[in-house]
Design brief:
The structure holds 2 protein chains of 2 kinds. By secondary structure, chain A is of the alpha/beta class. Chain A folds into 2 domains: about 10-190, Rossmann fold, CATH 3.40.50; about 205-330, Rossmann fold. In chain A, about 35% of the residues lie in helices and about 20% in strands. Chain A has helices at about 10-25, 50-55, 65-80, 95-105, 105-110, 140-145, 155-170, 180-185, 220-230, 250-260, 275-285, 310-315, 320-330; strands spanning about 10, 30-35, 60, 80-85, 120-125, 150, 175-180, 185-190, 205, 210-215, 235-240, 245, 265-270, 295-300. In chain A, the strands form 3 sheets. Chain A has a 7-stranded mixed beta sheet with strand order 3-2-4-5-7-6-12, sandwiched between helices. A 5-stranded mixed beta sheet of chain A has the order 9-11-10-13-14, with helices on both faces. Chain A is globular and about 60 Å long. Chain A starts with 7 loop residues before the first strand and ends with a helix. Chain B has one domain: 3-Layer(aba) Sandwich (Rossmann fold), CATH 3.40.50.970. Chain B contains 11 helices and 7 strands. Chain B has helices at about 10-35, 50-60, 75-80, 85-90, 125-140, 160-170, 190, 215-230, 260-270, 275-285, 290-310; strands at about 65-70, 145-150, 175-180, 185, 185-190, 210-215, 240-245. Chain B has a 5-stranded parallel beta sheet, with helices on both faces. A two-stranded antiparallel ribbon of chain B has the order 4-5. The chains are: A alpha/beta, B alpha/beta. Chains A and B meet through helix 3, helix 4 and helix 5 of A and helix 5 and helix 6 of B.
């Protein structure tokens, strides 16, 4: 039995789980489909107990076929259900690429609104958990180029609940990215009751005046640690958690940059063609004369994913100290 | 008048089948003519598939069943409630086309009659059909089924296999209908698969598989109807395969002389389902030759008039490019 306590401190896994539970409770059209989400309760135990409570018609343990998981969910969505498809690890999403990019994201457009595809695809992404080449990747840049698709990557329990609730009720397909290193590491207040957070709205996780750090996912937490460290050195850092990658909150970014006049973009995904490239281009187009320093990007290196060996993974991931150092350099510029 | 197996069909239904077949062929030919006249950029024909599609359309229950078809299904589309004029509006990409002139010809959807939206990515719609069938079963909607059609080429796609497997695991109300014309654009069946019949693959999914003569509209009707009835009864999916011909190139952009001889096509034409069925109806006294000629003339006039009307329709306004990306305003930045 899943119990949703009044406002409580939970980790990210629990936030996903409780939000899915509420959705299943409140809307009979919500069905979950994915690998090992039934008796196993999902590999991270997110759906533990759901099969017993909601039954196999709604908690669908699928054959091991990602294209079918998303394709079947597209059909369900076209026919009025509210499917939440799970790709067990973002690294396994590639077989479903056409279904997401070519089908789900284009259903409304190609039919000129005759058919819609209200579908959520949840998937754990990101590294730093010894996941090696096939359990560590960030996939957001592969999808953020695609009109018709929304992408969300929250970092805290409260944001997960509000954004996942919105995503499930959204009339269009949403790719919901959950950073797996945050799953048990990050804990936070989970407000009681139903609430939503609009997609496309960033959150300023820490106010500051000297520079703006723009990030999402796990690195938001490291950036906050680094920012607090710099606070003791007299450097005031603003930390923006994008939360939504598409649509992205230009207003919040521009307001912050006009105040601090310096920008550091942090993401775990590769630098080349990553989310930071689009933010940089937007800032150069729209805030060039507001900038007092070149835009700085601190991102994953342009290699295929991080290796299994601890040394290789550490080299890929950006330490809090490296983040702090980049912030110092930018503040001094 | 001699006796024949009419599968419970009335004379009117037998004539309806011919009418559908003639409409298909006339609209097909019109597409190719308009393309050669430089009036439309592209057309794809279903010549040779007419009997199968007419029969399947007659087996389809309007207002109940769902069709997830593919671009070569013109006969099925008009047979379940797309009007010939809507087909022509799609060829001209009019603003009044079913999908606002966005899609390639004959890729339209029409949700009000259960015709599902499709792309040109082969077999991508098969899992959609399964999801729709799942929704019907989930809601406990009795007596409804999904008809999912595709060509032989689709059956090489992994997603096609994933769709059949998923449907079979969940015992869904769906019929997989293969329109096997022996060519995936230019690649012949013997290079596509090492078996003779697509239907043999049904065994791997624990569902019935049947091959039938897709050049015979009555056999097609009967086979599709029995498979749909089975699905509607809750007895699960099946795979049925109609052997058909493709007389034209893959599309107006394809020159089939590069991969098959005219003699091969002429040989296939000897069994052309349209004149064959006309002769059948005459032989059994359902229609006289003069009535068939009158029907052909009537259909040609209908398509001529529909062509003129569609050609006169306005194209979508350029501003239409930007609508229906998402619900509401579709900005990447917020």
């Amino acid at each position: 039995m899943v119990v949703s306590a009044p406002s409580s401190v939970v980790n990210n896994v629990e936030a996903v789980r409780l939000t899915l539970y509420e959705a299943l409770k409140s809307d009979p059209n919500v069905v979950l489909l994915g690998e090992d989400i039934g008796a196993r309760g999902n590999v991270f135990l997110i759906t533990k107990g759901f099969l017993e409570e909601f039954g196999p018609q709604r908690i669908i343990d699928t054959p091991l076929a990602e294209a079918a998981i998303v394709g079947v969910a597209v059909g369900m969505a076209m026919e009025g259900l509210r499917p939440i498809a799970e790709i067990q690890f973002a690294d396994f999403i590639y077989p479903a690429f056409n279904q997401i990019v070519g089908e789900a994201a284009k259903t409304r457009y190609r039919s000129n609104g005759d058919y819609t595809c209200p579908l959520v695809i949840r998937t754990p992404y990101g590294g730093g958990i010894r996941g090696a080449l096939s359990h560590s990747v960030s996939v957001e840049a592969l999808f953020y180029h695609v009109p018709g698709l929304k992408i969300v990557a929250p970092s805290t329990p409260a944001d997960i609940k509000g954004l996942l609730t919105t995503a499930i009720e959204d009339p269009d397909p949403v790719l919901f990215l959950e950073h797996k290193k945050t799953y048990r590491l990050i804990k936070g207040e989970l407000p009681a009751g139903r609430y939503t957070i609009p997609l496309g709205k960033a959150d300023v996780k820490k106010q500051g005046d000297d520079l703006s750090v723009i990030s999402y996912g796990f690195y938001v937490h490291q950036a906050l640690d680094a920012a607090r460290e710099l606070e003791r050195e007299g450097i005031s850092v603003e930390v923006i958690d994008l939360r939504s990658i598409r649509p992205m909150d230009k207003t919040t970014i521009l307001e912050s940059v006009k105040k601090t006049r310096k920008v550091l973009i942090l993401h775990e995904d590769n630098k080349f063609g990553g989310i930071g490239a689009e933010i940089s281009a937007m800032l150069v187009e729209e805030a060039f004369f507001e900038l007092d320093a070149p835009i700085r990007r601190l991102c994953g290196p342009d290699v295929p994913p991080m290796g299994y060996a601890r040394t290789l993974e550490n080299e890929y991931m950006i330490s809090t100290e490296r983040m702090a150092q980049a912030m110092r350099e930018l503040a001094r510029f | 008048m001699s006796a024949f197996e009419r599968y419970g069909l009335s004379d009117d239904q037998l004539i309806w089948l011919l009418r559908n077949m003639l409409l298909q062929r006339t609209i097909d030919n019109r597409g190719f003519q308009l393309n050669r006249q430089g009036k439309i950029p592209f057309a794809a024909g279903s010549e040779g598939h007419e009997a199968l599609q007419a029969g399947a359309a007659l087996a389809f229950q309007r207002g109940k069943d769902i069709l997830a078809g593919y671009y070569r299904d013109l006969g099925l589309f008009i047979g379940i409630g797309v009007t010939p004029e809507e087909a022509l509006r799609s060829q001209f990409a009019c603003a009044s086309d079913l999908n606002g002139g966005r899609q390639f010809p004959h890729h339209f959807s029409k949700k009000s009659i259960g015709l599902v939206s499709m792309s040109s990515v082969i077999a991508a719609h098969c899992t959609h059909a399964v999801g729709i069938a799942y929704a019907l079963k989930y809601r406990g909607e009795e007596g409804r089924a999904v008809l999912c059609s595709f060509g032989d080429g689709a059956t090489s796609q992994g997603e096609w296999h994933e769709a059949l497997n998923f449907a079979s695991v969940h015992h869904l109300p769906i019929v997989f209908l293969c329109e096997n014309n022996g060519l995936a654009i230019s690649v012949p069946l013997r290079k596509q698969m090492a078996i003779d019949n697509v239907s043999e693959r049904a065994a791997a999914y624990g569902i019935p598989g049947t091959t039938f003569d897709g050049l015979d509209p009555l056999v097609s009707y009967d086979t599709v109807k029995r498979a749909l009835d089975r699905a509607r009864r809750g007895d699960g999916p099946s795979l049925i395969e109609g052997k058909v011909h493709r007389y034209l190139g893959h599309t107006t952009d394809d020159d089939d002389r590069t991969y098959r001889t005219r003699e091969e096509v002429a040989e296939l034409r000897k069994r052309d389902p349209v004149p064959t069925y006309e002769a059948f109806l005459v032989k059994h006294g359902i229609l006289g030759q003069a009535q068939i000629e009158a029907l052909r003339k009537e259909i040609l006039r209908e398509i001529d008039e529909a062509t003129d009307r569609a050609e006169a329709e306005p194209l979508p306004a350029p501003s239409e490019l930007y609508t229906n990306v998402w619900e509401g305003e579709a900005r990447p930045w917020w």
